[in-house]
Amino acid sequence: MVLENPGTSLPLGANQRKRAKEFYYPLLFLDSVQDCCQHAIARKVADAPQNPNQSSEADFRTLVNKLAHICDYRPAGDTVTALVVLAVDGRIVYAFASNSRKRPNLIQTKNDLTSVLNILKANLEAETKESDQALFDRLLRQILRLNTVRVRMYLTHLTKDLAACVKACEGDASEETKSSSQELQKLHDLIPKTDEAGQTSDAYTSSVIRCIQTIEQYRRSPLQQFIKKKAATEEKLRKNKTPWSNLHHVGGRLLSYGYDAETLISAHHMWEDSDLFREFEVNFLDSSQSNIPKPLEFSPQTIESLVNGMPASACNAREKKALIQHAAELRKYDLDKILEGQWQRKLNPIVHAEMILHDWLSRTPGGLQPSRFFGGWQYIGTSKPVCRLCRYYFDIIATPVHFRDGHPNSYVNWRLPDIRPQGNRPQDMQQANDDWCKIMEQIKTKVYADLRRVLEEQKTDQKMNDSNTYTDRLTLAGLLMNSGV
Ligand SMILES: [Zn+2]
Questions:
Q1: What InterPro entries does UniProt report for this protein, alphabetically (predicted)?
Q2: pTM listed for this prediction
């Protein structure tokens, strides 16, 4: 049975389509400006907070994010997944939604996630428990197999970045550089070659695990400091997308699969007396459907017309003049060309996964009450940090539900949840439409404020990659390193 929102959703009326379009112009402009400003900043290389003393609620949030992460199989955003753990009549329901997955794909993901949870269930119910190590190996292999496509992408990037870093070390005869370069070359040589047919074989998975182990090993060695130093030097030179910081990021992404498995094992010990991994079902919500008759198209705008189009409440005439000047300075980073590309786009925006789940929760019995959530913890986890526009939306509606910390990226292909009137009376329709317009206006105001801030500062806090290089985990040190492959 698929989880469904009650009632029917309305397509956008002419008035709303007009408002939506008005919303996307400043958003497209903001997106372009951020794109330009990336040339002017370097990626931050930061360590994740290590917090071994976090509360059980924080541990639970980590678990939920990890489960969502396991389901985000592919790059580019379609499989970005949100997940919530509900306690329904004494039974645990893992409910998830993805940005843009078709029904058969959602069913497959449901079965896959069930198979992962069943590994933990089988262990809890077994008379003789498996060792954590054996459990870890089994989970990690399963998680890597589900994420073959994404893992392959990381390995391809890793191969390229390692080669570039080794090359960059050439000509530097210092002992530190020489030995670091050798270590990097060693990791390079460990990466299994692309072989579509073999990517699910045990031997291929073992090679991937050896790579991940080696990355973990390097993270605890002087090589880590060497890479960080190089990345920091590049940051100073304000270079864009450098192999050293990429190396750091991709290494972190690959390690995160090991942390997924560690977190699951740790969680199944923590909650072994509950039903969390014993009596459960996994279910999903469909991804959003289009609510417009045809994709949105845009007419070309100039920097001047875009800035002058800002409402007086966001910016007065004198300030607009200054903003136009700021924007003009971004012409050297191809702002005009980037904008030109934006007007060619045909947008058919989607509802992000966490908003789909939140919307469904708020419209079904029990709503957003703590009693509906496992442990009373009102939390929706996600495979990626929550985007800027979703964050604005949740702030505006003042939801009691918590989400993963946001990152400042905004995605153009974003829309509000479907308009669902509470009843069939005309006033119900009117109310739903009015609510939609009100929220749309409030978000637009925030986008204008962002636009103004970014132009004034001439830099952006947008991150290059929208996943944390380091992610939280419930640590069970040693499992990855001792994995027998
Ligand atoms: Zn979002």
A1: OTT_1508_deam-like
A2: 0.90
